[in-house]
Amino acid sequence: MLKTSVLTVLISFCLFNCKDAKTKSDVIAQTTARVSALPRTVKSPVNNPSTKAKINLGRLLFFDPVLSGNKDVACATCHHPKNGYAEFRDISIGVNGQGFGNSRVFNQPNAIPFVKRNAHTVINTAFNGINMSNHYDPEEAPMFWDSRVNSLEAQALEPIKSLEEMRGTHISETDILNEVVKRLKAIPEYQTLFKAVFDEAEPITSENIGKAIAAYERTLLTNNSDFDKYMRGDDTAISLAEKEGFELFKKVGCINCHNGPMFSDYKMHVLSVPENDKLDSIDRGFEDQFGFRTPTLRNLRFTAPYMHNGTLVSLEKVLEFYEDLSFKKSRNPHIEATQVDTLAQNLTLKMKDMSLIISFLNTLNDDTFDKTVPERVPSGLQVGGNIN
């Protein structure tokens, strides 16, 4: 009887612990599965298939300031390949500006405000909206800090209509796209290029401008970072310290919002980022609730300063900000600590964890993106706008 009892206890102990071990393993696997390598290929909308000619046309439009009201700003002015298709500024200077990146200033006299928000990088925006199962719909991809439009096709036209970004004060928002179409129709080279891409009676339209730029932007990818290689099975692609940082990233709760292949849940979250004193009004964000979309953590090397208004100048400052949130502190007088998203307040981030987490975040950098800049644009204007 004793031997039988002992045997029963041992079997029960073994079964309990094996079950427990399996549960822990499953939890770890589930947590790791919340992030993954980026897909190797990109989807295009059904009504905008990608072709080499369309991509080349989109690149020319992206760098041509003929799309702006005063013919002085291109998409590339604030999204230049030398800056990782972002800009090393807190908030951008668009219309009536001169210079490049940090050196860009307003011409005088000036009545144009700063661009309201920090310039997102264009790199990997082809994957916007991708979830933890690697599913995304390019026609429903959320764009901008407040997700106010969906798809790269729609996004491409919004800066053209914005007063401070590209439009300026001389042409109304309702007229600017018609004016741009008129300008392009007057340029024989653009007539030829659009006709070759869009076999339509009137190939130069605002819709086709958006399609061409979007097709080009879908080629701007960094899906072979050290982290991507690691997630595809190369255990040597990241160091022991970077792996430790990855574990801390998950453990302290960063992964609750920064998940999926793009390290973004693409949801709105209320934080309490300090206001940018260059702006003359409070930015109340999504639906006037101070919410902003979770940004990707990929290529952070190219996107400083950080947050929706660029007020946090380094990754160290970003992590310190989140540490403050965990202590129920608000850095914005217009936002009560109780309004801050509970996922941010429940972070268990400590100062001692920060360097390792930053080491991990650096594994998400990848500088192998296309950096091609056209030697000229069909309008004959300065490539990239007034950036020299």
Report on the architecture of this protein:
This protein has 388 residues and is mainly alpha-helical. 35% of the residues lie in helices and 4% in strands. It has 14 helices and six strands. It has helices spanning 2-32, 52-63, 75-78, 152-155, 158-161, 163-167, 176-185, 188-197, 206-217, 226-231, 240-251, 315-326, 342-345, 354-361; strands spanning 97-98, 105-106, 142-143, 149-150, 268-270, 291-293. The strands form three sheets. It has a two-stranded antiparallel ribbon. The protein has a two-stranded antiparallel ribbon with strand order 3-4. The protein has a two-stranded antiparallel ribbon with strand order 5-6. Strand 3 and strand 4 form a beta hairpin. Helix 11 (240-251) crosses helix 14 (354-361). The protein starts with a helix and ends in a 27-residue tail after the last helix.
Summarize the structure.
The chain has a two-stranded antiparallel ribbon. It is mainly alpha-helical and 388 residues long.
Key features of this structure:
disordered N terminus; two-stranded antiparallel sheet; mainly alpha; 14 helices; 388 residues; globular; two-stranded antiparallel ribbon
The total count of helices amounts to 14
Determine the strand fraction and express it as a percent band: under 5%
The general outline is globular
Question: What is the mean pLDDT?
Answer: 93
Order of helices and strands: HHHEEEEHHHHHHHHEEHHH
What class would the helix/strand composition place it in?
mainly alpha
